[in-house]
C-alpha cells in the first residue's frame, strides 16, 4: 500500500494551468499533487556565443526552488548554487532541445525558468512537463507575431518518475515514497513515445534489469497521460 | 489622470490570501494589483549568535524576485545578490521587528521569505504587508502549540508607496507611474498609526517639505485600508 | 543632556579638507567630529552601457570602511560586501545625481569613492557632504581643462542625521547617541533647501508625525551650516 | 566502422595502475585508451554533520579536470565550478556508496578525488572504475591497521559508456564517437551484475526502447571485463 | 640622474606619525614621500585554530589599497582579491612574526591592517615599516594594561626597496623609477641587521650577483635610517 | 646529516619527461625526487587586452595542486584560491617572461599550467624548471609550423631552493627539511647564470648576509645541473 493510497500505476492529480504569468511570453503552473512548479518562457533575440551567425536557435532552462517550498526551509544561496540545481537545469534544457527544430527557431534563445513554489517529490518531472507547455505557448506567441515560420517544435515532451517502493514498481513518487524508495528513476519521453532521457539510481541495493524494464513500462503509461493533459491545455488555450 | 485611471488616493485592488504554502508555519500571497508577492514564515529554534542566551528572539526577512516576474527577464544571479535586494530585505526585517516583542518570542527566529512572483511596482510594500500576515499566522500557530505565552506581536504593520506623478501626490504607484514619478516615497506604518520607516527619494528635481507632508497624508489613508484588510483576513482565518 | 554635552541643535565640529588626495581629480576629507571620511572623485571617459550614445553622463559612488575604522575591528570581506555598504553607496550616488545636469556632463562618469577612515556615527552623511566637495572640485578641474562647458552642477547637496534621543530631537548623532536613539533619520537636502532623500527609522517604538516634522526642522538648520562650510572651502580653494 | 577501428563491442585498452600516489591511503590511475584519470582515496576520521553519532560512515567524491587535459584548454575556474563537474562528482559518490556497508565502515569518511589528466571521452566511467580500486586499496589499508573489522565493501562497481553511433550500438565511446553519437548512455554496474545507475540521453533524435535494451546488453559485457581487470589488479597488489 | 633628483643612496622624506587612529590599539601613518600607508594594530583574544591551547600567540596582516590611491583608479574588488594583495599581506605578516616572541605574547592575535591611502611606489616597504610601529604601540598598550609580561618583541623590523635604474643601484624607488627599473628588490631587515626577507626580481634582463650584492648594501643603509626613525617616534610617544 | 642522507650540495633525483600530455603544444613532467609537477603549454592566438595591437606576445602561468598531492588532503577550493597559489603562479610567469623575446613571439599568449601531482617540497622550483621545457617544446612546435621566425627564447631558465638546515646551507630541500629549516630561499637563474628572481625568507631567526651568499652559491651549482638536464631532454626530443 502506497502512503497516498494510490494504485501502483496511478499518477497524482495533474493540473497544468497555462498563461499564469503576465509578462512571460509563455507560462504554465504545473501541479503534480502538492508539487507546484511555475514555468515561464522568455524569448531573447540573441543566442549564446557558440551559435552566433549559425542561423540556429537555442533552448535553455534554469531550475530553482523557493526557500520555503520544502518541509524544512532551505538556505537561499545553497538552493541557487547546488550541484543538484544545476544538474536539473541541464536536464530540463536537454529535454526541450530534443524536440525543438533549432534552424526553424532562428537565432533566438528561449529560456525556461522553472521555479518550485512547493515541493512534494518529482519537481524535475513537473518542471519538464510544465516547461513544454510554456515553450509551446511562447512558440505560438512568436508564430502569431510572424516571427517564425512553420513549427519549431517537432514533438511534445513530458517526464515522470518511477521507483521501487517496498519491492514494488510504482508510478509518480511523492516525497514520502521517494525518501524510502529502493530505486528511483526519471524518464523523459516524447509524445510519440521516443526516449529522450533515462536516469535510474539505486538508493539502497542495486536493482535488476527486469525491475528496470518494469519501471520503463510504468513510465510510458504515465507519460501518455501527461501528453494528453498537455494537448488538452494547449487546445483549450488556442 | 493616472495611467490606471485610479483616483489620486485610490489603492490598487488589494488581495491577501492566507495559508497558501503547505509547509510554512504561516504564509500569505499579497496582491497589490498585478504585483504578487508570496510571503512565507519559517520558525527556527535558534537565534543569531549575538542573541544566544539572551532570552530574546529575532525576526528577519529575505526578499527575492523570480527571474521572469518582471517585464523583461532579469538574470537570476543579479536578482539574488544586488544591493537593492539586500536593502529591501533589511527594510522588511526592520519593519516586522518594530512590532514584535522579542523577549516574549523567546529564543526563536522567525524568517520571512518574500518572493515576488509578479512585479508591477510596489513590491516592497506588498512584501511588508503580506509578511505581517504570514508572521501573525506563524505566531498563532506557535501559540496553538503552546510554544509562546501571551502575544509577541504588539501591533500590526503595513506599507504603501506614494509619489509625485505629474506634480500631483498619488497613492500606491504601479510600474508605469513609478518609472515616471518625480518623487517616490515608501511609508511603513503601524496599525495604530505610528511611523516605523520613511524612505523618500527625489527622482528628478528635489521636492518641498509641503509636498512631502501631503505624501505622508496619503500614506496614512492607504495604510489604514491595508490594516483593515489584514485584520479581515486574520479574523476570517481564525 | 547629550553624551557629548552638545546642545540639541548643535553639530559636531565640521572640517572639510579639500584636495587631500594627490591623484584624484577632486577630493575632500570630511570630518564630522571623530568621523572621518575620505572622498575621492575619479573622472572616467566612458559611461555604463545603458547610457552609451545618449550624450548623457553619470555619477556613481562606492562606500567603504577600513577594517579598524570602528571600535572593534570588522572583517574586511564583510565590510566590502554587506548589504549596508551597498545601500549607502546607492544613497550617495542618488544624492549626487539629484544635483547634476547629466547632458551637460557629457558622456563621462564621475565615480566617488567614499572611504571611512574613522567611524563615530553619521558616516553616510559625512560621505555625502564630502563627496559633493570632491565632485565640485573634479568638475572645476574639468572646466579648467575645457572638457565641459557651463556648470554641470545645478545645486549643492549636503546630509545630516537627526534622531530622538531620550525623547528629545537632536542633531548630528554620534555613535554613543546613535546606538541608544529611539529613532534615527538621515536627510539629504540641497543648498537651496529642496529635499533629495529622507530615510527615517524607528529603532525602538514607532514615532509620531509630529516628532518627524521636528527632526526635519533640525535637519534644515544643520544642512544650512554644512552648505555654508562647503561654499567656504570651495571659495577658498578657487 | 568506428573511427578507432574497434569492433562495436570492443573496449579501448584498459589499464588500472594501483598505488600511484605516495600519500593517498589508496590510489589508481585508470586509463581507458587516451583517457587517464588519477583516483586517490583519503580516509578522514570525521563524517558530515548529518551522520555524526550515527555509527555510520560515508563515501564521497570530487571530480576535476586539469585545464589542458582536453583538446583545447579549459578555463581553470569553469572547470572547477561547472554544473557538469558537480553532476559527475555526485554520480561517482553515489556509485561507490551503493556497494559500501556504511555501519561497517564506522564513523569515517572516505573521499575520492578523481582528477582527469587527459580526456578522450568516457572520463566519468574511467573515474568510477578507478575510484573503486582506490577505495578498495584504502579499505585494505584500514583493515591492515585494524581500523575496521570485516569487509565494508559488499561488492565491486565499474562503469562504461555505450552509444548509438551511425545507428549502431557501440561500447566505450571515445571523444570522436561521443561528439557525433546519436545517443549516449552511461551504465554503472556491480561486479555481481546489479544496476546501480543508468543515465541515457538522446543527443539528436529520441531513441527506442529496443535500442536502449541493446545498449544495456553491451554495457554488461563491458563491465564484466572491467570487473575482471579490477580483480586482477587488486589480487596482484595484495 | 633620478627623476626625483635624489642621490642614489637617498631615501625619500620619511614621516612616521604614531597613534593616528582613535580606536586601534596601536597605529602609525607611514609616509615614504608621496606613498602614505595607514597601519592599525588590533589585539584579539583568540588565535587561529592551529594555535589553540598552544600558549603561543600570532601576528598577521592584511594589506589593502583605496581605489583612488593610485594614478588611475583601480576596481575595488580587484584591489581586495588580487594575488598581489595577498602576496603582500603574507609578506608583512611574516616580517612581523620574525621579530615576535610568540610564547611571550600569549594566546592572542595581533592583526595589522595596512591600507594604502596614496601610492607612489614602495607601498609594501612603507607598510612593513609602519606596521612595526603600530605593533610596538599595541604591545606597549598591552604591557600597560598588564596583559603581557616582559617584551614580546625581540627586535625591530623595517623594509626598503632598491633597484637598478639606468644601470645604477638606487635606494627607495618611487613610482616613476619603479616602472622603468631593470631590477627591483625588497629587503626586510631587523634593527640589529639580520635579514628577514629578500625578494629580488629582474624586470628586464637578468642581473648579476655583483649587482645584487650592491643592492643589499644600499638596503642596509636605508634600513638603518628607518630603524632610527622608528626608535625616535617610539621614544617620543612613550 | 640530512634526513634524506644527501650531501649538502646534492640535488634529489631529477627527471624531466617531455611530451607527456597528448593535447598540449608542449609538456613536461618534472620530478624532483617525490615532487612531481605536470607542466603543459597552451598556445593561444590572442593576448591580454593591454597588449592588443602591440605586436608583442605574452607568457603566463597557473599553478595548482591536486587535493591529495600532499601528506594530508587539502580542500579543493582553498587549493585554487589561496594567496600562495597566486603568488607561485605569478612567480612562474615572471620567470618565463624574463627569457622570452616578446616581439618575436608575435601577438600570441603561451599559457603554462603547472599542476602538482605529488608534493614533497620544492614544487615551485620543479614547476619553473619543467615549465621551461614545456615552453621550449611549444615554441619548437610553433617554429615547425612556421608560426614564428627566429627563436623567441633568449635563454633557458631553471629554479632551485636552498635553505639553512640545522645551521648548514643545503641544496634542494624536501618537505622534511623545508618544515624544519631556519631559512628558505628560492633562486631562479638563467642558463647563462643571470639572476631572474630571488626569494629568501627567515623561518625562525633572521639570517646573515654571509649565510645568504653561501645559499646563492649552492643555487648556482644546482641550477647548472638543472640546465644540463633541460638541454639533454630537449636535444633528445629534437
From TrEMBL, chains A, B, C, D, E, F:
It catalyses: tRNA(n+1) + phosphate = tRNA(n) + a ribonucleoside 5'-diphosphate. GO terms for biological process: rRNA 3'-end processing; rRNA catabolic process; tRNA processing. InterPro entries: ExoRNase_PH_dom1 (IPR001247), ExoRNase_PH_dom2 (IPR015847), ExoRNase_PH_dom2_sf (IPR036345), PNPase/RNase_PH_dom_sf (IPR027408), Ribosomal_Su5_D2-typ_SF (IPR020568), RNase_PH (IPR050080), RNase_PH_bac-type (IPR002381), RNase_PH_CS (IPR018336). Its EC number is 2.7.7.56. It is an enzyme of class 2 (transferase). Keywords: Nucleotidyltransferase, RNA-binding, rRNA processing, Transferase, tRNA processing, tRNA-binding. GO terms for molecular function: 3'-5'-RNA exonuclease activity; tRNA binding; tRNA nucleotidyltransferase activity. Homohexameric ring arranged as a trimer of dimers. HAMAP family: RNase_PH. This is Ribonuclease PH.
Amino acid at each position: 500500500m502506497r502512503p497516498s493510497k494510490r494504485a501502483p500505476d496511478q499518477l497524482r492529480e495533474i493540473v497544468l494551468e497555462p498563461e499564469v504569468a503576465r509578462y512571460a511570453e509563455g507560462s504554465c503552473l504545473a501541479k503534480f499533487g502538492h508539487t507546484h512548479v511555475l514555468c515561464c518562457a522568455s524569448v531573447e533575440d540573441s543566442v549564446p556565443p557558440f551559435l552566433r551567425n549559425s542561423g540556429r536557435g537555442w533552448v535553455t532552462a534554469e531550475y530553482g526552488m523557493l526557500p520555503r517550498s520544502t518541509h524544512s526551509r532551505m538556505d537561499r544561496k545553497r538552493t541557487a548554487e547546488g550541484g543538484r540545481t544545476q544538474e536539473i537545469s541541464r536536464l530540463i534544457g536537454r529535454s526541450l532541445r530534443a524536440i525543438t527544430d533549432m534552424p526553424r527557431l532562428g537565432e533566438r534563445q528561449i529560456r525556461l525558468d522553472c521555479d518550485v513554489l512547493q515541493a512534494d517529490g518529482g519537481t524535475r518531472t513537473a518542471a519538464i512537463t510544465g516547461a513544454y507547455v510554456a515553450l509551446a505557448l511562447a512558440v505560438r506567441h512568436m508564430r502569431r507575431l510572424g516571427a517564425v515560420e512553420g513549427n519549431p517544435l517537432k514533438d511534445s515532451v513530458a517526464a515522470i518518475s518511477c521507483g521501487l517502493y517496498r519491492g514494488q514498481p510504482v508510478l509518480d513518487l511523492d516525497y514520502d515514497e521517494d525518501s524510502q524508495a529502493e530505486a528511483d528513476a526519471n524518464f523523459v519521453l516524447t509524445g510519440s513515445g521516443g526516449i529522450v532521457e533515462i536516469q535510474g539510481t539505486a538508493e539502497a541495493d542495486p536493482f535488476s534489469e527486469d525491475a528496470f524494464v518494469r519501471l520503463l513500462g510504468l513510465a510510458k503509461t504515465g507519460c501518455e497521460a501527461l501528453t494528453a493533459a498537455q494537448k488538452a491545455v494547449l487546445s483549450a488555450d488556442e
